[in-house]
Amino acid sequence: MNELIPGAVAGPQDGGNFEASWYGDYLQAHLLTDIGLRRQKNEDSCLMCAPKNPVLIDERGLFFSVADGMGGASAGEFASRMSLRALHSAYYTGPRQSIPIALQEALEDANQQVFEEAEINPDYAGMGTTVSAVLIDGGWAYIAQVGDSRVYLLRERSGIHQITEDHSLVAEQVRNGIISEAEAENSSFKNLITRAVGIKAEVDVDLFAVRLVQGDTLLICSDGLCNMVSDPDIADCLSDGDLKLGTRKVVDLALANGGTDNVTAVTIRVVNTPPRSPIQSGAREVSIPSEGLFRRIWSWFR
């Protein structure tokens, strides 16, 4: 399996729980994954990389990711862990180019490695995993996503925003107007995903770019969290001034609401003004308002 880049932290290593914190010049992050209340093993994985080599940070940024594996026996656990190790390794050692394109190619490389392992090893036949990754370069967050693990952004006075689009049958039915969001909540096909890393020789990757401002909080999470906790409740938990405490709150709420799946959250907070940096090509820019228009108008007349 791919070696971790110096400065990378990943877990869990044993199918159990894992927690870690990191502090940088203008960012801080917390990683937390819990086996949940009904599963025997944790098939989620999370990884962050703040390279020890300052040149790599300057040229390639800071990497954060979550994967939710699937497959029999230990296959899901192996797929999620393998994909994140392969992804961050390919990203940091690959050719220097636009960050979104580098992320896409690294995820395609990870997909190939997982797919080939499943083809040659009967123990891992049919394995796959979701992957959601955030690469922060100065004042921009670049997001690569396959599956239904999500990336949210919480912005003061603007609220919570889901950046990614779920690659699931139910989510596609909602987007196409076939069913309502209320019907989707109760659908028996809610967990049927339409894209995953490792299940085919090729994979389609969604790429997004978001400009960051001081005070922003990003959340990368598996569906074991977002299926159990509403968006408003996620926002309420992550509004806590202590990022570690807020991360624990949102995971604990998922457990309190049933904890039917593994629960993973990687949170990243912009604690100081981020460095200025130009947007890099290759991703769809997502605009997040600093404050809602109607809220601003309302405040003028209060």
Tell me what the structure shows.
With 302 residues, this protein is an alpha+beta fold. It has a single domain (8-300), classed as 4-Layer Sandwich (Phosphatase 2c, domain 1), CATH 3.60.40. The protein is built from nine helices and 13 strands. It has helices at residues 54-60, 75-93, 99-120, 169-175, 181-185, 223-226, 231-238, 243-256, 293-300; strands at residues 8-11, 18-23, 27-34, 44-49, 62-70, 128-137, 140-146, 150-155, 159-162, 206-211, 217-221, 263-270, 284-285. It has a seven-stranded mixed β-sheet. The chain has a six-stranded antiparallel β-sheet with strand order 2-3-12-11-8-9. A hairpin with a 3-residue loop joins β2 and β3. The radius of gyration is 18 Å and the shape is globular. Mean pLDDT is 91; it is low at 296-302.
Short description:
With 302 residues, the protein is an alpha+beta fold.
